[in-house]
């Protein structure tokens, strides 16, 4: 089976409610390819490695979380950007990218997908008064030690997270995938036992230690592999087309 590119993009935009979410990049169709889509390849970032894998997989469209044309990005089509766009255009492959809409979505979003995998109970947004709040607040069914939670993350994501151990059990938790270490102060204000994100920075370590909060940095790439897979699966079911997720490992 196949569907038109325009119909695919229209449904993805509607499902993710892209017109209601301000972002740092364009969401939706970033590069136009062939008019009919029968196979989607999804991945976290539209890197050259993913593009080359999608060409080998004979994809009609590529679906990613991290696409192109970011705010304040240099506009010149040279170097890495030229090679990436040339690959897409020469092979008539479309690129669809969804950033914040894919982080916040209540069904296929990165944060709810990570919660499902780690057994976290979603209770609400980390910043209830912020309409652009991305992080979530919730709990575990039963209290665990920081080391036990670290092992759970490692088993699920396939990598050992950086951990700051507050040496107290974890029941209440806040989390936000990707480069969201800056939300640690909101987590402290929420009174949780732990904060989980993708990346760490030097100040976040001190904040965790001085506030008695356990902190976990499990990898930007590792924590954001699941929303794009769920979105790709949704579109494949909706249009009866093929979907293949390709993971291009990234240690960050």
From TrEMBL:
Pfam families: DUF34_NIF3
GO molecular function, one term: metal ion binding
Keywords for this protein: Metal-binding
Gene Ontology cellular component list: cytoplasm
InterPro entries, sorted: DUF34/NIF3, DUF34/NIF3_sf
Residues annotated as binding a divalent metal cation: 65-66, 103, 220, 224
Family per similarity comment: Belongs to the GTP cyclohydrolase I type 2/NIF3 family.
Name of the featured protein: GTP cyclohydrolase 1 type 2 homolog
């Amino acid at each position: 089976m196949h569907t038109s590119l325009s119909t695919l993009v229209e449904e993805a935009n509607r499902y993710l409610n892209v017109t209601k979410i301000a972002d740092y990049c364009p969401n939706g169709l970033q590069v136009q390819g062939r008019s009919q889509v029968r196979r989607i390849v999804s991945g976290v970032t539209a890197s050259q490695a993913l593009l080359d894998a999608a060409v080998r997989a004979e994809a009609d469209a590529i679906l990613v979380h991290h696409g192109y044309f970011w705010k304040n990005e240099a506009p010149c089509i040279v170097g890495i950007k030229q090679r990436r766009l040339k690959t897409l255009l020469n092979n008539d492959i479309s690129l669809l990218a969804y950033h914040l809409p894919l982080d916040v979505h209540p069904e296929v979003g990165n944060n709810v997908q990570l919660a499902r995998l780690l057994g976290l109970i979603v209770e609400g947004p980390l910043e209830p008064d912020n309409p652009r709040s991305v992080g979530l607040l919730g709990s575990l069914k039963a209290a665990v030690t920081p080391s036990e939670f670290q092992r759970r993350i490692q088993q699920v994501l396939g990598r050992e997270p950086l951990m700051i151990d507050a040496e107290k059990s974890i029941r209440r938790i806040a989390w936000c995938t990707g480069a969201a270490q800056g939300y640690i102060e909101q987590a402290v204000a929420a009174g949780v036992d732990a904060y989980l994100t993708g990346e760490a920075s030097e100040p976040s370590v001190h904040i965790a230690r001085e506030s008695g909060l356990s902190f976990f940095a499990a990898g930007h790439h590792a924590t954001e592999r699941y929303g794009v897979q769920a979105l790709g699966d949704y579109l494949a079911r909706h249009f009866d087309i093929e979907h293949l997720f390709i993971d291009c490992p990234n240690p960050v």
